[in-house]
Write a structure and sequence with these properties.
Largest sheet: 7 strands, mixed
Strand content: 5-15%
Strand order of the largest sheet: 1-2-3-4-5-6-7
Shape: globular
Low-confidence stretches: 278-282
Radius of gyration: 18 Å
Number of helices: 8
Distance between the termini: 5 Å
Helix content: 25-40%
Order of helices and strands: EHEHEEHHHHEHEHE
Length: about 280
């Protein structure tokens, strides 16, 4: 049987809609045989997902999607094949989660100053706190008709609830992943909306920091964009990764496994990385 990989997914522990067990079951039903759980800045769902994966007969790769800063831009780096018990990684994740809590408090205070009271309730959720959760609170309380307009009206630069987060820098994020035995993947490069030159600068900085792979195939990319990323990966001798970046089931977003294959001239990230794929699946 052909191996189907999805190495970028999310659950309710960050900003996804499914519990870890449900995510794994959905992925297995879609034909995924190697799945990475990569919640934002937390690995709290990995144990449940691993248990479900054993039940479903697929391989679960412990991972995380770290928020980092590069030249004033928020960038996401996926770590794959991580030792969740690594002390350095746990400390780094705890620091980023505290940054998220501090930003959440500041956003709630800023919205209260603008007359929108009660957003601090998002801090009570068990997982990480993100702008998505504040946006959903704004929608639920009638301040915006949907999440997109909640962001536009309140949570983007210059709007009443916008607060800058102080993320660790790119090198520190990659170091945390490498120190926990994982490999670092630059997530969804097209989404940063950088010019060709700036994107090359980012990829170069990522490579120099010790990053090993580029997410070449992800949701929403056309064949031309995939080809562009494949060429960029080859230019910088990076492996190529594939991930749906699944959060929730929407018509324009793919469920786990609903992705095109990597271009044939790419080096897949699972080749030569036993921490990512430790066994073949017949």
């Amino acid at each position: 049987m052909k191996l189907y990989y999805d190495l970028h997914t999310h659950t309710v522990w960050s900003d996804g809609e499914l519990e870890p067990g449900s995510l794994v079951a959905s992925a297995a039903a879609a034909g995924v045989r190697v799945l990475a759980l990569t919640d934002h800045d937390t690995m709290a769902g990995v144990d449940e997902a691993a248990c479900a994966a054993r039940h479903c007969g697929i391989q679960l790769i412990p991972g995380v999607e770290l928020s980092v800063a590069w030249q004033g831009l928020t960038v996401h780096v996926v770590g794959l094949g991580l030792d969740a018990g690594n002390a350095r990684l746990r400390q780094a994740l705890a620091a980023v989660r505290e940054t998220r809590i501090e930003r959440g408090r500041a956003m709630a205070a800023a919205l209260a100053a603008a007359g929108l009271l009660g957003a601090q309730s998002v801090l009570e959720r068990p997982g990480i706190v993100s702008r998505v959760h504040v946006a959903d609170w704004l929608v639920a309380h009638g301040h915006a008709p949907d999440r997109a307009r909640a962001f536009k009206r309140f949570l983007t630069r210059g709007m009443p609830g916008y607060v800058v987060a102080q993320w660790p820098d790119l090198t520190a994020g990659v170091d945390s992943i490498r120190g926990a035995g994982g490999c670092a993947v630059l997530a969804h490069p097209i989404r940063y909306r950088l010019s060709g030159g700036r994107l090359e600068q980012l990829v170069r900085a990522f490579t120099e920091a010790g990053g090993v792979a580029l997410e070449v195939v992800t949701a929403g990319l056309d064949a031309g964009e995939i080809g562009r990323l494949a060429r960029l990966a080859r230019r910088y001798a990076l492996h190529a990764s594939v991930g749906s970046d699944f959060h929730k089931a929407l018509p324009w977003r793919l469920r786990p496994g609903g992705l095109p294959e990597l271009p044939g001239d790419c080096r897949p990230v699972w080749d030569g990385w036993p921490g990512i794929v430790s066994r073949e699946i017949a």
